[in-house]
Amino acid sequence: MTISFTSLSTKDLATLSQRTIVTSDEPAFSMVRDNPLLAAVKTVYNEYDGVYAKKFYTGKGDQLVDADDERDNPFAGLKSILIGHAKAKSSPFQQDAKDLYAIIEKYGIDLDRYKWAEETAQLKKLIEELDKPENMMKIDRMQLRPIVDHLKEAQSKFEQLFNEIAGENSELHMMESASSMRKTLESALRNYLNVVKAMKSQPGWKELYAKLDEMVKAANNSRPTSQKDTPTK
C-alpha cells in the first residue's frame, strides 16, 4: 500500500477518499465503525468535497497551487535530511543538523500545512535566519545550499504570484482554504491507511486491507507513468 498523495489530482484524491470511506463502512468491517482516524477522514473529506465542488479555480489559481507545492517540496526535503543527520550519531553533521532543525522548529516544523499567508510569513522569517553567516556555514558544511536556494527561489516566486492574485481575485481566501484542506485530507487518509496496514494480520483487517490496497493501486494507475511507484508522502 504505497502511494504519493501529493501527486494525485484533486479528483483522484477525492475518489480514493470516498471509496475508502464507503468500503470501511461495510457491515463486515465493524471493527473500524468507531475508529477516530476513519472519523477524521470522513469529516475532512466532507469539507474538502464541499469546497472543490464549487469549482472556484479561475485564472492563475492553478498556478498558485503549483507554486505552493514547489516551495513545500524543498522544505519537506530539507527537514527530512536534517532529521536523518540529527538522529545519526555516526554523522559528522549531527550537531549542525540539530542546530538547523531547531531553527525550523522555531518557525513551524509543519508550516507547509499552514494557510498560504501564514506559511509565507513564517517561511520569510525562516529564510532570513538561515541566511545568517553562522547558519550558512552549517548549510555549506552539509552541502545543503542547493536545496536552500531552491526553497528561497520557490518562496520568492510564490510571494510574487500571491500578491498579483490578491489584487485581482476575490476568491483567493477560498483557494487558500481549499489548499490547506487538501493537505489535511492527505494527512488524515495517510494515518488511517497506515493503521489498516499495521493491523492487516488481525481477523477482519486482512480483508479490509486487501480491498483498500486495490483502491490505492487504482489511484496509482490513474497518475502519469513518471509519477508512479514513489514512496508514500
Oligomeric form of this entry? single chain
How would you sum up the global shape?
A: globular
Low-confidence stretches: 225-233
Structural class: mainly alpha
Q: What proportion of the residues form beta strands (DSSP E)?
A: under 5%
Main beta sheet? none
Count of structural domains: 2
Instruction: Find the count of extended strands (DSSP E, 2+ residues).
Output: 0
N-to-C SSE series? HHHHHHHHH
N/C terminus separation: 12 Å
Helix percent reads: over 70%
> Taking Cα atoms only, what radius of gyration do you get, to the nearest Å?
20 Å
Count every helix, treating DSSP H or I runs of 4 or more residues as helices: 9
Mean pLDDT: 85
If you had to describe this structure to a student in words, what would you say it looks like?
- This protein is mostly helical.
- The chain folds into two domains: 109 residues, no CATH class; 108 residues, no CATH class.
- Helices cover 71% and strands 0% of the residues.
- The chain contains nine helices and no strands.
- Helix 3 crosses helix 4, helix 3 runs antiparallel to helix 7 and helix 4 packs across helix 6.
- The protein is globular, with a radius of gyration of 20 Å.
- The C terminus is likely disordered.
- InterPro entries: DUF6261.
